Amino acid sequence: MSSRLSVEERRAHLIEAAIGLAEKKGVAGVTTRDVAQAAGVSLGVVHYCFENKDALMTELVKALAMELRDSVDANETVWQDVGSGKEALQKLIRAGLELMWQGVEATPERQLLTYETTTYALRESEQTPAKLAIAREQYAFNDSTIGDIVEHAREATDSQWTVPVTVVSRFMLAAIDGIVLRWLVDNDSAAVREQLDVLAQMVTQYSA
């Protein structure tokens, strides 16, 4: 890797290398030495950018979450001239879910990886309690991502939530987790879209 790269560019390159390895061999099987080799840098470079594997895994799960967030934000036309009120909010949330789903559908290996990082952190936390922070950071970041999206939708449609937005975001994230996991099992995309219809409808019942 060129020495001219900034620390952030180096970190991004290492994270992508770690994702590629984890997709092939699972999170538990990835070492910082593996990442260094895959990225074409010395082990010292990895430890300069990340204190340890746990720090790298924390940034890896954030990167995966950001990919889905970017898939929703990328299409600005979705947010334009949407109207106001509950019906408009439901349509906008459903449109956002569709954009997110397209990103999920195109990257099944990465979606499986998000579940692996969670179970890795939970299993390893039995021996190393600090590893639980990886899973908690993952879900806190995802909660924030979903929260930002639904707040954006609320503002765009001049609506109000009748429950705290954190309740909405946590419920949506739990539902999305289950929907994606089921899709990884049965690969039924038509069923997913029906479920997303229901999810958008359910969520907007808590708006005014």
Automatic annotation (TrEMBL):
<dbReference type="Pfam" id="PF00440">
    <property type="entry name" value="TetR_N"/>
</dbReference>
<feature type="domain" description="HTH tetR-type">
    <location>
        <begin position="8"/>
        <end position="68"/>
    </location>
</feature>
<keyword id="KW-0804">Transcription</keyword>
<dbReference type="InterPro" id="IPR001647">
    <property type="entry name" value="HTH_TetR"/>
</dbReference>
<dbReference type="InterPro" id="IPR009057">
    <property type="entry name" value="Homeodomain-like_sf"/>
</dbReference>
<protein>
    <submittedName>
        <fullName>TetR family transcriptional regulator</fullName>
    </submittedName>
</protein>
<dbReference type="InterPro" id="IPR036271">
    <property type="entry name" value="Tet_transcr_reg_TetR-rel_C_sf"/>
</dbReference>
<dbReference type="GO" id="GO:0000976">
    <property type="term" value="F:transcription cis-regulatory region binding"/>
</dbReference>
<keyword id="KW-0805">Transcription regulation</keyword>
<dbReference type="InterPro" id="IPR050109">
    <property type="entry name" value="HTH-type_TetR-like_transc_reg"/>
</dbReference>
<feature type="DNA-binding region" description="H-T-H motif">
    <location>
        <begin position="31"/>
        <end position="50"/>
    </location>
</feature>
<dbReference type="GO" id="GO:0003700">
    <property type="term" value="F:DNA-binding transcription factor activity"/>
</dbReference>
<keyword id="KW-0238">DNA-binding</keyword>
